[in-house]
Design goal:
By secondary structure, this protein is of the alpha/beta class. The chain has a single domain, classed as Rossmann fold. Helix content is 42%, strand content 15%. Pfam families: Abhydrolase_1.
Length: 254
């Protein structure tokens, strides 16, 4: 299955990988800035999000991204990932370094992180609500947890819509197929990497950024004192400037 996606602009290819609270619509504020900077921008919905259905067989998100690039005739791209999308980007870059030109990771997750007390409590509460069938309350829990104080009401409503849709897709009756796990060694990543964390996010994600800055050679960590977990949606213009500056250095458009 080819992931649902859209393509805009011309130039070197960027792949935008969404947070697992969202889908590819989270990147709407970045699209004009990145295409204007001279990039071909590919946005996709991971399986079970947006317009991509749940898998009908065992799957791997990084392999799905590689298959999408193959279908588009792209040999090498820069990856921009938020949260769970960053985790996918990290696996792609570690397993397929020859295809990875640069990494920009916003409040990224990693596969082997042991959650801290607050993040674990959030996960337990979400599980309890979903097991009780209260999708509306689970959705509101996610909106409250993941959006920082700088976000406006329209942004909160979009996150609410995306998260509710993801729950509805993922909880619909049907056969479940697990993801295929691969070992991921961050130290083998060769692409230039930008690691962004937010002061108003769970502390786990700052800890992850600090850890990755030590594991990925030549990487750079930027901590935003105003940001929550989704800075690209909370203050898009500020994040767009950071992304474009990094990409122009690490993966310049012709």
């Amino acid at each position: 299955m080819t992931l649902s996606h859209d393509v805009a602009g011309d130039g070197p290819t960027l792949v935008l990988l969404h947070s697992t609270v969202c889908d590819r619509r989270m990147w709407d504020p970045q699209l004009p800035a990145l295409t204007a900077a001279g990039y071909r921008v590919v946005r996709c919905d991971l399986r079970g999000f947006g317009d991509s259905p749940m898998p009908d067989r065992p799957y791997n998100n990084a392999d799905d991204v590689a298959e999408l690039l193959d279908a588009l005739g792209v040999e090498r791209a820069a990856l921009v990932g938020a949260s769970g999308g960053g985790r996918v980007a990290l696996e792609f870059a570690a397993r397929m370094p020859q295809r990875t030109a640069a990494l920009a990771l916003l409040c990224t997750a990693v596969a082997d992180h042991e959650p801290g007390e607050q993040l674990r409590a959030f996960g337990d509460e979400e599980d309890t609500l979903l097991e009780a069938g209260d999708v509306a309350a689970a959705t509101e829990l996610n909106v409250t947890a993941w959006i920082g104080p700088q976000a406006d009401d329209a942004t909160r409503e979009l996150v609410r819509t995306m998260q509710r849709h993801a729950f509805e897709v993922q909880l619909a009756p049907g056969e479940e197929h697990g993801s295929v796990k691969h070992p991921v060694d961050h130290t083998v990543i060769t692409a230039p990497a930008l690691l962004v964390s937010g002061e108003h996010d769970f502390a786990d994600f700052t800890d992850i950024a600090v850890r990755l800055s030590k594991e990925i050679a030549g990487s750079r960590h930027v901590h935003l004192d105003w940001a929550g977990h989704l800075p690209s949606m909370e203050r898009p213009e500020d994040v767009n400037a950071v992304l474009v500056a990094f990409l122009r250095e690490a993966f310049p458009a012709v």
